[in-house]
Structures are given as structure tokens and as C-alpha cells.
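Subgroup meeting minutes
Present: P.N., E.W., G.H.
Scribe: E.W.

1. P.N. recapped why we're keeping a running log of single-chain structure predictions: easier to compare across weeks, and new members can see raw inputs and outputs side by side.
2. G.H. added today's entry (254 aa).
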Amino acid sequence: MPDRAEGAIERFRHLRVERFSTDRASALGHSHARNGHVVKVLCHLALMRDPARLMRPLSPLRNVTCTAAERQFFSAPDGLQAAHLLPGQIKIDAANPWTYLRGDPARRLENLFAYVEPLHANFNKADSAAESNGLTDAFAIACRQVLVGTGAPERDIETAYLRSWLPGARQAFEAAAAQKRGKPVPPPIVYGAPGTPDFNTILNLEERAEAFADESLWNVYEQLSVLDYYKASLDDTPRELQPHNIAAILTSGP
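Output recorded in log:
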């Protein structure tokens, strides 16, 4: 019979480590897409500052909130969940924002809130933790900043993204991670000391493999990793924030 300890290590290596390497790309891709969609929403809200673009007038108050998602393009297949790109549904004075716009921009804005990606449950759990720790608030604040802005739309969009969305999202990811670190986590990696035959070798691989056999511990660890990648994605400027991409939306036809 094969060695059980070695079997546990191999299971950990193939089912956990290899999935983790795939998750890195998925987490960065999901978060980059979220950041880009935030910019696109801000651009469409800037269109509302032009009365000619409106189906109905905005109120002077322009109260902006972010509630639970309502639109979804598809359901995920078995074993996965449909993770929304945007943190939630923006409401303007309790109404969906696209109901204020005319023509094609209204359709495009509604679509932005329906985009999802089929990912495993730990992505949705990481998303939910960030949303409950300030991500939805950061989205709503950035949206209102554009909606009530009086400067050049391009500048207001960039400012809202850089000064409201970015710091708010960063704080939300950090707060969500701190919350999850309060739960049991696997033992940290122990490396061999310099000058020893085991230098740079993981000494407690078997212990970590046994810990990761506990699905709940692995899930917390994976959610923390996803949140770290979400935070790292904020260092990359989305292509949607480039002036020509903003202009393409602001000058689009009705």
C-alpha cells in the first residue's frame, strides 16, 4: 500500500498548489475586470450630467447607494458560482441608473451590472467579505462624485477612480483580510536555516498538507490569497481609464 504521508503530500501538491497557481491568474483577472467596469460605470454616469442625454431629470439631491446585485447574464455550471464583476447595484434616488439615460448608453450601463464570471465559491466569499467591509461604499462614493461633479468629465472620472475607488477598495480588501485572519489558518511555512543541509527547504510540508486536508482551513487560506491579489491589482491602471477610452464613451451616440 502506498505511503499515506507521501500520498497526503502529493494530494496537497496536485489538488491545492496547482489550483492555487491557477487562482492567481483568475483573481487578478477578476479584479482587473472589476476595476475596468467601475471606470465604465463612472463614464456612463458622467453622461447624465448632460440634460440632452436624460430620459427624465435627476433630483438635486442625487442620493447614490449600492445594493445587492440584481442583473446576471448567466448561472455558473456545477461546482462554480457566478461572481459579479461590480460590487453591487448602484441606485440613484432608489432607481436603477440606466432608467435615466436615453438609447444605447442605457443598455450598455445596464449590461455592466450583469457581467459575471464562473469561479469557485471562495472568490464569491472573498468578494462578499470585501463588500461588507467597505467595497460597496467606495463604489457608491465614486459614482456620486462623478454624478455631482462640475469639472471636466474626464478629470472628474479620473479623480473619482483614483481618490475614492482606489483607496476605498484597498481599505476594504485589507479589512476583509484582517477579518478572515481572525479565523483558524494553517501553520506558517518553516524553512531550513542558512548553513544547514535543509536551507531553503520547507521543513513542515507534511504538517501543512495535513492542515490543508481540513477544507475549512484551506478555504480561509484561499480567500486570503484572493484578497491579496485583489489588492495587488489596484497597482495596475485599467486601460479603461486611458483618455481615449473615456472619450469613446463620452462621445458615443444615443
